[in-house]
Task: structure prediction
Amino acid sequence: GAGVSQSPSNKVTEKGKDVELRCDPISGHTALYWYRQSLGQGLEFLIYFQGNSAPDKSGLPSDRFSAERTGGSVSTLTIQRTQQEDSAVYLCASSPTWTHYEQYFGPGTRLTVT
Amino acid sequence: AQTVTQSQPEMSVQEAETVTLSCTYDTSESNYYLFWYKQPPSRQMILVIRQEAYKQQNATENRFSVNFQKAAKSFSLKISDSQLGDTAMYFCAYTTSGTYKYIFGTGTRLKVLA
Result:
């Protein structure tokens, strides 16, 4: 079946502009994660969605970052007024449930802020 | 605080040889899960192997095996008969029972040489 997909694959934007990154999880997966991967760093947790529960936003680095998940499926990560330090690969992962203990990752979106 | 440490930023190995990637973690939990994920240049993270802490037997998946030393909090990955397709970043990750949060190491870049 189809895996996790993300779009766009690459995004170059000017400092100060807003960007939207999209994630399509595997059908039926109730858990969805967003991570940020900066050069030379591990994966930094950003936000977690589980079904219809309130998301865990504790990893969002600033109020310029927000995310939503519509209908328990597609998720959009929005970064407002982008800064150069936002440049990174943004990875999305989904899981059947949070107790499944294995995440299925998308290919990521490489964001470059100039 | 729970941490995952990968002390080898880069490694190389000749094709057909064996290589071991190191991972140590710090936790006071007794029930947890450990993972090795592979991220090739395509950026698609895929699960290589997982280990449940309550299992004494080391996990094995074809050419990949782990050396899980619970008392030492060590979780190394051994790749036997290395292949060019094994060239990738390898991330060690940890999660505990009852939580959805994962902690990732900073990764080891492995290059398999022809």
Remarks:
- Chain A touches chain B at residues 3, 31, 33, 35, 40-43, 45, 48, 50, 56, 89, 91, 93, 98, 101-103, 105-108, 110 (CB under 8 Å).
- The mean pLDDT of chain A is 92.
